[in-house]
Amino acid sequence: MVIAGRVDYIDRDKTRARLKDETGVIEIEAKEDETNNKLSFGLSDLIECSGQVENGHFIATAFRLLSPSLCPAPDSINPDILKLRAQVLQYTRRFFDERDFLSVDTPTFMTTPDLTPALASFETPYRNDTGHTQPFYLQTSPEHYMKRLVAAGCERIYQICRFYRNGERYDTHHPEFTGLEWYEAYADYHQVMKTTEEYMSSLAVALNQEMRILYQDNAIDLSPPWPRQTVREIMLAYTKIDLNKCQAVDTFFDQATRLGYEVRNDDSWDDLFHRIFFQAVEPELPSDRPIFLTEYPAQLPSLARYVPDDERYVERFELYIGGLELANAFTELTDPAEQRRRFEADRKLKQDVEGYDGGIDEALLAALDYGMPPTGGIALGLDRLIMLFADTPIIDPVIPFRNF
Question: What is the C-alpha separation between 29 and 12, in angstroms, rounded?
């Protein structure tokens, strides 16, 4: 019998050692009459052993050095989390394939950046064969391309891909991360909520055999339906701020100041909203149940349509589980004139703040001009989802080689 693996233990007398590979570990022992009862390899070497198993030990009669280990391991990789990651990705594809969603693969580069004020795109120069150079941008999400596919007749699509967001690096976020997006024509964000519940609760059953997970010592029940609460309701409950009464930035500043929240002279409406939300609302969200926060203020940039009969809010939800924001979803905006107006407003802000002098995504606007059916769409962070099932409070362990 021949076995191979990496040496992860050698006893002081160099007569016994332990060999490991991805399947497990095995004790090895040198047979005295054939190997002089001494092991000649070093810790972490990769070796091959010939011999046989006796009483749970591998009695080696010959050794061959496959590759010496010349330094400590440069990377810390957790094989169990890698396997969990593979299981999540495999199940995700199966879930959407079985529901007749088409798996799509769209470009990573875009010719215009994400104009959302809070996001920064990675920029790289593209040089064609004539020497002409133009800026290309890594996608912050595949949203624009996927909406063009919906307009072209691909009515149920999903994609697992890399997202890139410059300047975003903290415990639960990395500038390069893996996300899932899906779009369903003739659906709205209520249908997207139902699909999200079904996807995540069934994933829990596939991984854990039950609709419960334990995250950071909190048992979380994923059984649908999940609680839903509007952003206005939750802001009123935890901050006493009534968003209906502070649509203008000056009235929002007045309310926030009166209630003791920090207000800065250079704050925009959404700067102030997010500071108060992150400080006063996020820590109070339920720890034992997922929650959908719905109907976001229209002042916040998005590609979502207005709530019928109330243009102060848009049909958008964010999903929180265990304190993690996992998903952002819309009933998609399909009105090309309104979309152009929002793009132009965002471009002006980019110009004023960052000096951006480029264009807007005319290809998406052309698709909307052609006609895009009513559609529900979502972006879900798969790395954060894996954090939940791996029970880790930071993102680094679930993404290999994330040392920047």
Answer: 13
Nearest to 313 by CA among 331, 328, 327: 331
Question: For residue range 17-59, what is the model confidence (pLDDT) as tens digits?
Answer: 999 998 899 999 987 655 455 678 899 999 999 999 888 789 9
pLDDT, tens digit, 9 for 90 and up, residues 48-96: 999 998 887 899 988 899 999 999 988 888 889 999 999 999 999 999 9
Token output for 323: 């304190």
List strand residue ranges (DSSP E) for 68-193, in order: 102-103, 109-110, 123-127, 133-138, 156-164, 176-185
Neighbours of 7 (CB within 10 A): 19
Rounded CA separation 107/151 (Å): 17
Helix or strand holding residue 111 (H, E): none
Domains of the chain: 2-67 (2.40.50.200), 79-227+286-398 (3.30.930.10)
Handedness of CA 142, 189, 295, 231 (dihedral sign): negative
pTM comes to 0.92
Contacts of 63 (CB under 8 A, 6+ apart): 35, 39, 40, 41, 47, 48, 49, 50
Alpha helix (H) ranges present in 125-217?
143-151, 189-208
